[in-house]
Protein: Acyl carrier protein
Organism: Corynebacterium hiratae
Amino acid sequence: MANDLSAQLQARFGSAPAEEQDSAPTGDAYSELTRLITKVTGVEEGLEREAKLEDLGVESLERIELAVCLEEASGVRLNEETMLSVTTVGELADYVEEHS
């Protein structure tokens, strides 16, 4: 999934979304997720665990980009069904935490 999604994103945006890696060490799944949501959407506030992804601007294309970034950062594969079933930042962070 990641390779196909990466190729689609690269074709659309001209570069793979996770090519820019921060040199700062990553923390827990929630911290990493909020960093990636900010990277994907530009949203820096309102990233509480109960915040709805949709309210943060995470729509279909952003969900794909977020899934690719999370997989590359954490090694956790996020399929389409999973990405559609989670609705909040906390649910997605918990999923990544449980599967890493």
